[in-house]
Amino acid sequence: MKIAKWLFRILPFIYMVLIWILSSMPDDAVIELPSSPIDKFVKESLHLVEFAILYVLFVFAFLTTRRFSIKRNLFCMVIACIYGITDEIHQSFVPYRSATIIDGVKDITGVCAAYYFIYQAYFKKRFTKFGKLLKAFSKCDEERSKNVIS
User: Fold this and answer.
1) 148 is in which domain, residue-wise?
2) Rounded (5°) CA angle 31-32-36
3) In a domain, 44, yes or no
4) Is residue 17 part of a domain?
5) Number of structural domains, the chain?
6) What is the pLDDT of residues 80-123, one digit of tens each?
7) What is the dihedral of CA 43, 44, 48, 54, to 10 degrees?
8) Does residue 82 sit within a domain?
9) How far apart are CA 144 and CA 150, in angstroms?
10) Which among 137, 141, 143, 142 is positioned nearest to 122, based on CA atoms?
11) Quick one: angle between helices 101-122 and 70-92, nearest 10?
């Protein structure tokens, strides 16, 4: 279980490197859909998802420490938003890529949406099934440790 715990702790950083590498390539380097409007829609929609995933990975990393708090949740959100803005600045220097304010807004909006659901589920006891999943994730290592000690 220790390997899985550490994997969850380094996963956000691996994902950040992946984002950086993909942002360094032309937008059609990895995939280009046959229909230009669909291709553009999918890639623009990914701004909402890409940094929300980063935020969620940071949350799971903190959940493995069993020290997840409202302040740490906010910290995860801020880091994901800052990295989204940093990525947009980075893309402005990459040939065949563009960086716009609206892309940064989409990055931050995706993070804020994910933050809302996790905050409500974990701290405010709404979205109970999702909240139970988050709590179970943070306690799975604790219960395993108790079983080993007993």
Assistant:
1) 53-150
2) 155
3) no
4) no
5) 1
6) 999 999 999 998 888 887 778 988 899 999 999 999 999 999 99
7) 40
8) yes
9) 10
10) 137
11) 160
